[in-house]
Design a protein that fits this description.
17% strand; Rossmann fold; alpha/beta; 2 domains; 320 residues; binds 2-amino-3-ketobutyric acid; 12 helices; UDP-galactose 4-epimerase, domain 1; three-stranded mixed beta sheet
């Protein structure tokens, strides 16, 4: 039986991860969703155990883990890149101290940790195309700095204390359930929402901006597959995972295939510089070799599914 605790359960990935873990491990698994008081959605609270938890409060985290005999923490609570640039102190506090608290509790109670890193660990000096797993990590955002420091900390806890901590470097994640909050890649989600709701979108990065992206089902599958991978086969703790890469122009074109009247214009803001500092595509051969990473979605398949799901969501929401 698994006793899993998920931090950041109200977030874009957290909400869908909690549902997926509850489905995957069955009714006897305890998947405790944790998040800040104002944020946890009703369906997460109603579908299994939950508690309010601030990852900055180590005592509360420790009590929750101990009392529930937790064996795995999926630590998803994080401040993303765009908000991080506006609130660097908050990004440092939550991203660094939150992870440090989780790793300390994991060390004390012999708990495994799944923690997402990001393509934000890379920077302008890193090879931009097919970025290798092991390469230059010199980011220019505070978010990226916290992810690099987090990766180093994760490796330290593994080698020094034997804490089984594993991580994937997520690209931009696209999903229809919960909107992302404060990332640079948020445009790749917002474009679908606006296309379905109003038929047009104003994008905050240029048309030729190319970034690696992934559909949520693959993002969740990747995390759970890595959690279940045989530790003896893992030579790394941190993995690039790739899926698809496209420019905003190509993304808009794929939406036009289904919504022919869709229009887009461009008003780049400060997030352009962040996007320009990240890779256009990543080499995920290490993840493929060590734990059989194998994503399912390409752009066309994702666009079809996103538009279907959002149409359904907005029809339900408006009662038509
Ligand atoms: C962001 O844009 O900040 C995130 C990320 C790539 O980690 N989606």
């Amino acid at each position: 039986m698994k006793n899993i605790l998920v931090t950041g359960a109200a977030g874009q990935i957290g909400t869908e991860l909690v549902t997926a873990l509850r489905q995957h491990y069955g009714k006897d698994a305890v998947v405790i969703a944790t998040g800040r008081r104002t944020q946890l959605p009703a369906y997460i609270k109603n579908s299994g155990p939950f508690c309010y938890l601030n990852v900055m409060d180590r005592n509360q985290l420790e009590e929750t883990a101990f009392e529930n005999n937790v064996d795995t923490i999926y630590h998803m609570a994080s401040i993303l890149s765009a908000v991080g640039e506006q609130k660097p102190q908050l990004a440092w506090d939550i991203n660094m101290n939150g992870l440090y608290n989780v790793l300390e509790v994991a060390r004390t109670y012999d708990i495994s940790v799944m923690w997402p890193s990001s393509i934000a660990v890379f920077g302008p000096d890193t090879p931009k195309v097919n970025t290798p797993n092991d390469t230059i990590l010199r980011p220019t955002t505070i978010y990226g700095v916290t992810k690099v420091a987090g990766e180093l900390l994760a490796n330290y806890y593994y080698h020094k204390y034997g804490v089984d901590v594993r991580s994937v470097r997520y690209p931009g994640i696209i999903s229809s359930e919960t909107p992302p909050g404060g990332g640079t890649t948020d445009y790749a989600v917002a474009i679908y929402y606006d296309a379905v709701q109003q038929g047009s979108y104003t994008c905050f990065v240029r048309e030729d901006t190319v970034l690696p992206m992934m559909y949520m089902p693959d993002a969740i599958k990747g995390l759970i597959d890595l959690a279940e991978a045989d530790n003896a086969k893992l030579k790394h703790r941190i993995f690039n995972i790739g899926s698809m890469s496209f420019s905003v122009g190509t993304l808009a074109q794929s939406i036009k295939e289904i919504i022919p009247d869709f229009t887009i214009d461009y008003k780049p803001d400060f997030r352009q510089a962040i996007a320009d500092s990240w890779p256009q595509s990543v080499d995920d051969s290490v993840a493929r070799a060590e734990w059989n990473w194998d994503p399912e979605y390409d752009l066309a398949k994702m666009t079809k599914d996103m538009i279907e799901k959002l149409r359904e969501k907005f029809t339900k929401d408006t009662g038509f």
